[in-house]
Amino acid sequence: MQPEDGQLVRNVLSGDQEAFASLVSRHSTMVRAVIFSMIGANPSVDDLAQEAFLRSFKYLVSLSDQQNYGGWLCGITRRVCLDFLRSNRRPVVSLDEIQDAGADFAEPRDTELELKNDVHEAVLNMPADLRQVVLMRYVDRHSYQRMAELLGVSRATVSSRLMQAKKLLREKLGGKE
Question: How far apart are CA 22 and CA 150, in angstroms?
């Protein structure tokens, strides 16, 4: 049986490096989901995940509720992403520039691939809090209770955010099947 987060944190603070490796292994999927929910598919995902874990290691001694390592790490990961987004603001490109570049938007595509891309795009364009719960639920397969713990919100809030996200997806995808 795997030790709980609180025990692993205590072991890390006692100098057990293997315990930290266990925490990284246990929470890496969640960290990547948070990063993806905030910045989308980006080559910097691995670097940001590493930065989040490094910060958690550096400040582990300041963690007051050692059993809530996952939720605390989730907050660190969000701050790492916000720092990244602030330092990497994208320039605004007008639609005229894109059309002038010769982009052909009328090119026929495979329907299933098109739907998959439309869903992916719709999820990426959701507000961060909605995108996060969608990815945690449908990519990481977390329960509502686990998502609530990781995000530091109530189970009702998780449920509400998922309902909002589904409604938004229905609106954006409309009649696509």
Answer: 17
